Amino acid sequence: MPREADHPLHTAEQPDRLSGLGTGGGVVTAEFRTPARPDLAQDLIGRVEAAGATWRAAGHEREAAPQDVLHAARHSIAADAQALRRIAAQLCSWPGRTLIGAEGSQAALTIALHCDHDPAFQVTLLRMLAEAVRRGEATSAQWAHLHDRCLVRSGRAQQFGTQYWLREGRLEMYPVADPESLGKRRADVSLPPRGDLIALLERRHVPHNGTGDVTNERSVA
C-alpha cells in the first residue's frame, strides 16, 4: 500500500465496483467553453497549481524531502480536500465541465486523488463522478483513475492499471484484476495503451537507485 508520506500517489460480476459505472460508456464528447462558475474553477485550479511543485515531483525526490516539507504538503492536501468537500456539498454533485470547465474538473480530480486521508469522502466523490460521467460532465478516464485509487487504497486489486509505485528502484504496477483483459478495459474507458506510458513514468520517477512511491499515471496520461 502507498505510504502516508506519499502524495498521490474488479472482476466479472464487478462485486468490487464502488460506483456501479460500467466500463463501456460515458466518454464525454460535448465541448464546453466558458464555465458557468469560473470562481469555483479558479479556486480548484489555483490549489492544484500551488501544490504542483510537490505533487509533480518524482517519487524518490518526495521520499527525500525534509519533514517540514512533508508536513506542509499534508496540511495543503487536507485544506484542498476541505475546499472540494465544500464545493461538492454546495453543488450536491461532482463539479462538472459545464460549471467549472474541463480544466477545473481535472483539477477537482487531482484533489480527489489526493484525498487518501479520508477514504469515505473519496468514495463519495467517486460516486458523484460516476453520475457526472453519465451526464456527460466528466470523462470515463477520469472516473477510472479515481476508481483504481479507491480500490488500491482499500487493499483491493485495481481494474484499469493506473496506479504505480517504486520498489527497490523499479517501477511496478499495483496488483490488477484479470490482467489478460487489461488492455480492453483501458480502451473501454478511453485510457491509452499501458505500454505507451511506461517510458514516461520511468523517466520521471525512477531514480538510478533508491525507492519511493509513485502517485499514478494521471500526471503523464
What this model shows, in words?
- With 221 residues, the protein is mostly helical.
- It contains eight helices and two strands; from the N terminus they run ααααααββαα.
- Strands 1-2 form a two-stranded antiparallel sheet.
- Helix 1 packs antiparallel against helix 3 and helix 4 runs parallel beside helix 6.
Highlighted features:
globular; mainly alpha; 221 residues; 2 strands
SSE diagram, text form:
Elements: H1 38-55, H2 59-63, H3 67-91, H4 97-113, H5 119-134, H6 140-153, E1 164-167, E2 170-173, H7 182-188, H8 195-205
Antiparallel strand pairs: 1-2
Helix pairs in contact: 1-3, 1-4, 4-6, 5-6
Task: Quickly describe the structure.
The chain is mainly alpha-helical and 221 residues long.
Q: How many DSSP E strands?
A: 2
Question: How large, in whole angstroms, is the Cα Rg?
Answer: 17 Å
What's the shape? globular
Helix content: 40-55%
Q: Biggest sheet, strands in spatial order?
A: 1-2
